[in-house]
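Structure tokens
________________
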Amino acid sequence: MKSAYDVIVVGAGPAGSIAARTAAEHGLDVLLIEKRQEIGDPVRCAEGTGKVGLTQFMDPDPRWICAEVTGARIFAPDGTCIELSEKLAGKEVGYVLERKIFDRAVAKTAAKAGAEVQVKTQATSLIIENGTVCGIRGKHRGDDFEARAKVVVGADGIESKVGKWAGINTTLKPKDIETCAQFLVTDIDIKADSCDFYLGNERAPGGYVWVFPKGKREANVGLGMLGSRFTGKHPIDYLREFMAWRFPQGKVIETVVGAVPASGMLKQLSTGGLVLVGDAGRVSDPITGGGIYNGMVSGRIAGNVIADAIKSGDVSAKRLQRYDREVRETLGKMLDRNYKAKEFVVKTSDEVMNSVAKSLVGVNFENMSVPKLLKEIITRNPGLFVELAGLF
């Protein structure tokens, strides 16, 4: 590892790896670091993503695709089921990945583009001079080091310290954090080509339960609940109750816990010499929690903007604000709309959820966009007009 680079990327998830790859493709000298000894492990993700979005960045590979999904089923609290096509089901439906393999595959593309990749390497602080980030201090396999860079990319997830060190307000309110638990379950009866979602405040307060297939009789079964709805009962407790009800004979072979931002994008994504991508910039979908595609989009934009800034010799806060603008132009409208939708859904009673679900039974969802779906809901449930009107 050298003492100076053009770009240092902290965190080798999909967002960080795409940022590193893009910057390296522009001929920049890039260092990509990961604090864990294995990229992609442990998994803290339901592992679902859309096909169209993913193929913008990676050629599909059966080594990291566990299941191909053609749609989704949403179960209201009373069991009423709404079936959605893949197109309407959202960016988390299409493929269910094996993230342990996928994340490494994305990091390999960064390495092949010319980036240096180092695992067991952790940033512990930033080098800041005259208000501009100029590199990092850290530990590499237990040894202290310093490495300077023209731009640092914070891709260190929901718990991002890089942004805080740079003076960016990354604080999340309890109402904007989904705390999650997930089991990898085998020997269960599932619909192998559908991602299933279970709603209800008794099952997952302010969130939902997901069942994402990873084979014919295997699935990620997980649950997210809002931090503001915590009353002493943890997500894993709700998840165990769901398992006892839905998959009592299922065999749990892996458990993961973590958190997902449901806040919408940070107001500030960059400063002099630094940008934030992926969950560090809170670009995950506020209503689903999905962040793979959005994270890679932010990483690609970051790599392009950084390359132009470095080549111009200007990595000031003003110059890097172009990154903020382009991410907002690309993802902002969708994230704002879905944040409003999240705020509506978490306040909705189980009775209203059941009523809406019943009113949509028999609706033809083919080629129906989200706005059209919302209009259909209002038409069939006029009492929801005020709450839903702001989502258009």
